[in-house]
Amino acid sequence: MAERPYIVGNWKMHGTRAMLAEARAIDRAAERLIKVEVALAPPFTLIHATRKEATLIGVGAQDCHPADGGAHTGDVSAAMLKDAGAGFVILGHSERRADHGEKDADVRAKADSAIAAGLNVIACVGETEEQRDAGKAESVVAKQLKGSLPEGEGVAAKVTVAYEPVWAIGTGRTPTVEDVGAMHCSIRKVLNEFYGEEAGATIRILYGGSVKPDNAAELLAADEVGGALVGGASLTADSFLGIVVAA
Ligand code: PEP
Predict the structure, then answer these.
(1) What are the TM regions of this chain, as residue ranges (predicted)?
(2) Which pLDDT does position 240 carry in this prediction?
(3) 210 is in an annotated binding site
(4) Is the residue at 1 inside a domain?
(5) What is the sign, positive or negative, of the torsion defined by CA atoms of 53, 124, 204, 132?
(6) ipTM value greater than 0.90
């Protein structure tokens, strides 16, 4: 595992202000758990309040629009997220790809906009069960990476990759530790080719998909795993901190 694992909670479309108590509890505990980098991505409506309540952990968003501003009803730009207190944005999550038809090129455009606005990016990739069964998992993920990642000088330092097999998200099922390690090594190769060995080697690759306190240590010990992107188990301080402690 990486020297300082990065554990990120994705609250998805969960949370009203009542949930800020969980963010506060996570933030208090983070003060003791300094060997782990902890962050939360609440819904847009809670970013500003979470930033104010939680002063130690990272706070980010779950999506942004690629444009700086304009006539895009219901959308939020990267600059707005930055202004609300976000430090990063999750992009290309499989739920965005499925629910909103996001393609790799959309993810890249959003990533470019996010980086220009001063945000870091967590770029999500992952295969479906059918693609894995067909032996195409690594090629699918490599294609997503090459199509979604932002390009340019110095950009790699702003990027984290999250490998999230679609069939493991919210299902309670996970790949074997060997399969996670094999995929993360394959992702590392693509990153080294894409950004060059020196920059590619520094990018953290998170595993996401049904990470829980009782399987976190095992999954986080797989080759090239630099942390975890956690959905359901990030919704209470108790279970999320169970994962942070396991890291
Ligand atoms: C996610 O959606 O990013 C995720 C990993 O969800 P879960 O942990 O609930 O599988």
Answers:
(1) none
(2) 98
(3) yes
(4) no
(5) positive
(6) yes
